[in-house]
Amino acid sequence: MAKKNRPKYEPDYVYGEPDPSRETNPLLISEILIQVLRFASPEGRALAARVCRRWSKPALEMLWCDLTDLAPVLILFFRMKRVKVRILCVFRSTDDFLIAFSSKNSLSPAEKLERTKSYGALVRTLRFDASRSFIPQSGTVEVYRALCAGKLDQYLPTGFLPSSELFPNLHTLEWRADESGTLAESTLRAVSYFLPPSLKHIYVSGIFGRPIFQEDGPGWFDTVDYVPFFRTLNAMEGLRLESLHLRMGEHTEVGPQADELKIFLRQHRETLVHFSTWTPGFARHLQKELWELSRLRSLEVVLDHEPHASGFIEGLANELPEMEVLTVKVDPSTREPNRWERFWATLKRLRKLTKLHLELSEIEELGEGDARSMREAWPDLSCLYILQKSGGWRNPYPGFSRDFLSAIAVHFSHSLTALGLRLEPNIRSTLPVAPVRFEELQLLHIQSSIAPDDPEDVAHYLAQILPHGAILEGDWHYQWKPVIHLLERERAKANDP
User: Fold this and answer.
1) In this structure, are strands 443-447 and 201-205 parallel, antiparallel, or unpaired?
2) In terms of C-beta density within 10 A (0-12 exposed, 13-18 middle, 19 or more buried), how is residue 368 classed?
3) 216 — pLDDT class (breaks 50, 70, 90)
4) pTM
């Protein structure tokens, strides 16, 4: 019997490291394993990191890429100083922080520092809720205080770690404080110490306390001082933010607060694409700086009243005609009725809009001609919300007429993916007589202060105009729950052969 020629063995990879192109087990291919681990809990990802060397890197990457608290990082520094173990990963369970580590071959101090830096380099998103942080329960309060004081180096076994190198690849920061306390008052300053130039998106929310009412409308007590945070951002070299969501209390016209915010907006006038603010004071005092954001394409802003709103939108139309996504909420801060003709006229000058979300203090009566002019002004519009701003001085206004809703169905039934409208008082009687199916609609939001008179009739009507997968929601969920249930039953009946 002739011998078969065997292929000559020619290793083309380092010993102990398999060639990915020759792998046949899908669970040993990093790209596939990462997709699987997207559905795993933090505990599951930490356990996966201990299965084998092939699983360790992708599992750790998924575990650390989206960090929901500072405590895991602080535990690493705490352990470097107090416990001589080889830390693999830290994750949060429902009751406590669990640490998965191996006592074999304890790392040297320099190796511990490099391991900690390697974990920090995996973090892409940091979501820190100061009101719900696990720092007190994790026993790392003293490390946290050192971080706030800028003295974290005392926990390093050797060498020096610049603050900006703690998370060198951080892309998104979300910081919240809904309750007052030590963490809420100091964490924002501490976080600013280690922000790297790679940061692109910031969400900061520091509203807590009770509402107060002033002559020009409602306001909030705000005990979070964000001036040092923005001062640090303004001093950073190479920072090019693309989006900022600022949910803070009232903004002052003069003083350090206004000065730092003005500097920030001017430094990022050519990079910010999205900006969102929560209080009318920001747009009132810094509207000129907002108009100068040359690359801005998405804006969410709260305005004082109709005259302020009309003037602000006019400035947008003059300076930023390429605006694509716009959310405008107008506070009902006056008892006098407003005239909205100028507001609608200037708004239709923003002809590139694809998403428009309006919450107005008064719902003006609109007709068939208004719906047609909207379609002509915004040919690419895919999301349209026109609601009444809640919490005003006035009673709820009636919703839109049947003529206007019929015109919306005619002109936007083939383009809208999301629609939100106010319907009052008799919901079924205001809906168009002949149902028009919205082919692309994915979400329908109905604002009303009362429940539908005939839930079954409304559900039957909505089943005819909504695609099968479209979601129905109302302002008051308990009022709309019967309609949603009946709608699901109507859909099931239609699909039942």
Assistant:
1) unpaired
2) middle
3) very low
4) 0.81
